[in-house]
Amino acid sequence: MTAVSDTEPMFFDGPGCRLFGTYHAAAAHTDKALLVCPPIGLEGLWAHRVLRVLAIQAARAGMPAFRIDYPGCGDSAGDDDDITIPNCIAAAEAAMQYLRDARGHRNISIVGLRLGAYIAAQVTPPHGMSTGKRLLWEPPLDGQALVRSLRGQLPSFLAKAMGTEPVLEDSGPGFEAVGMRVNAELEEALSRISPDSYAHLAPAQTALIGTEELAGVLAGLAADHPLRKMADISHPGSAWRLEAMHVRISIPSALVSSAVSWVSRDAQ
Amino acid sequence: MHSESVLRMGPGAGIVGILSTPLDRPAEAGLVILNAGLLYRVGPGRLHVRLGRAAAMRGYAALRIDLPGIGDSPGRNPGTRDVSAAIDELILRTGVRKVMLFGICAGGAAAYKTAIEDERVGGVLMVDTYYYPTFTTKVRYWGHRLRKSGPGSLIRAALARVRHSPDQSIEAADAFDMAPPPPDVYADQVRQITARGAFVDHVMSGEEPRGYNYAGQYANRFRKYRLGPLTSAEYYPEADHLFTRLQHQKRLIGIVLDRFEEQIPRAQLRRVLARDEALTQSFHRAWPVLDPVGLVAALWSNPGFLRRCAPWLSDDEVRMLQRADPSAWTASDLPLLDAARLAVGDPSARQIRRERERASAAEREYRESVADYLVEASDDDLGLMSMLRGDDLVNSLDDDDVLPRIGHDVLAGPFSHIIVDEAQELTDAEWRMLLARCPSRSFTVVGDRAQARHGFTRTWQERLADAGLRDIRLASLTVNYRTPEEIMREAEPVIRAALPDANVPTSVRSSGIPVRHAPIAERDGLIGAWLSLNEEEGTACVIGDPSFEATERVRSLSPELAKGLEFDLVVLVGPDRLGDGIEGAVDRYVAMTRSTRELAVLT
After folding, report:
1. Pairwise CA distance, residues A108 & B87, whole Å
2. Which of A4, A148, B19, B455 lies 20 to 30 Å (CA to CA) from residue B263?
3. What is the pTM of this model?
4. What value does the mean pLDDT of chain B take?
5. pLDDT category of residue B394 using cuts at 50, 70 and 90
6. B460 near B472, Cβ under 8 Å?
7. How far is B240 from chain A (nearest CA, A)?
8. A54 to chain B: which residues are within 8 Å by CB?
């Protein structure tokens, strides 16, 4: 069990608003730390537990971890209109600054799950800091498909819950997903995501966790595409997605252990 | 406007919660939002965040928590004691007296069980928590299935119920014991809760038609028990179990907050009673509107009142505290005035709020009459004019600028962090003022025991812990950048004589000018010589000689007033006249160390 004092939930200053974060301290101070970028919306809700477990295990392995909520997500200030890609990236960079100024960490590795993986790939370390490893967990590679799945999320969720296809009126720009409104700016930014969104990353410092679907997309890329050169630490059949989350929780333990092991190697 | 802070509560401070509070007024009542099953505290689709913030905007304090084993709270086996711990913390932090509980599904069960045991709970609102189907429920359910799918599906459904026993996939239900109490037991429990004026309400979604499928089902099921008006159920068939759609969330939040307002201020009852003039006058006589300033003044002008408020004071002490002009305020009155204002409220703000409500209501009434006229007079077939009656348009026409304004005290807090300087001088009462403004108790405290005029014999850890701070980390100042070493050599023994363990930092520089000792008669000559040598710039201060008249560049101060200031030249007059004991030593030390360059001690 984690001691209460090892985990410190708090608010910190973000881009124009207060952000919520949870810092998981390691036993000894180190220059390195792990920033955890979550998914948004329904996936963010589902992923809370698994990312918490991952952060705790990273801290136990000697690498302090910092979980954050983007503007308009989780406990951070703001609402659906504030959920934009630039805001999410700025929030992750503000979190890195916090880790430098308040905790004394200058070398930050980043793990991102789903849209968090895309954010993790776009983050630029603030002045005087460096980025260590990046672990991209089920990163979205096809923005158009991502938007289609988000558009279908609410009807499918409600159909499953209520047994009938809901009638969803379309009002204004953007659309309603489960528990959030995807604003037009976010929709447009999401639709532009492609494998090339990750082409700037150094393969030696980046690893992937994916599904068979992701493996299929990677296989279709040119052999020299950086994504194909990244380490793959996937565990077949060990998806992170959790069903009926409000009544049952299961954690893909082996996958989390592999992720922590890869990212915290040489942490001390 | 609202503010949010992180709280940790319960055994070992293991329960994590986020407190949302109004920024412009003390909270009127509290709301604790419990986990929906195993979902962490933000709730399904961030519903709990939106509910908490909406409650704070309406003047309530809302605390959304993770029970042990859920979200960020470690542990296991959540129970009613954990919910009561959250209520303790909410009351402690905000001073509210009534607390309502809200929960979806298993969160509703936890809320309900706590309401039975904890008399501070003023109401509980459960969403899809207990199902009590009636005969009509069953007829409607199977009738609907038959019409929709034909008899074959009924048989398949019956077989499916046998194959998939309810024991599968109900982990959360097991954890919170969601089995509804038998109707007789439930009725007794509801009577017990409502007997103290609390309400027990249900909101039922349309996701489980086998358990609940028509408005009035709850009333039908419990009619024979005569449970009274403080329990009811609202049926919301369009919504799913987690109120996933944003419009359903908005409506649910409205239901919760309206219920809150109905119960807490009993607005309707108040309106009826307020029309009775004789009754109103009687109430005003019995419960006069309190003025926080007048309340504190009464302590210093009415011995009987002071004795009643502070029974531990002796007669002599009560007599000493009385004064001719009770409103001749001193700095020591400030914490009392502040506490009185927090406890009583600001009567002028209440008055302005009432005026705002009256003005707003009058404005809306006028607009409604205009809208009625326009709708009646319109001949458009599309009914566009009827949009004038829509809530969105009505709200958007509200003009905040024309309504009376409530002044906002920028120092009222809450603040997420406070920096305190000269902390050695703060009294317990002054610390309370600060703590009340910083619910997170996150402080940076700067102070010097050696400069405490009334003595500071304990350690900083002890003092700050007594004041109510936790997790204290101490860092000592070891370097003195202001005072040259020539002066510190003479000042250090002065303070050490009274406080042997005082923290005296080491000077990092030398002025090359030794401390000058001379008779008091040389005061003016010494100052004149310094001024002629420093014609262009520099400031000086004569400390301890009220007969010296200050000039533009040479001030005249007591040691107490000189604290925190610095001068190129300090002329300390008659140090022995500053008295014995700690206070005298501190005054001498403070006076000597105000100098950044030269010190003259005149005796």
Report:
1. 39
2. B19
3. 0.62
4. 84
5. low
6. yes
7. 6
8. none
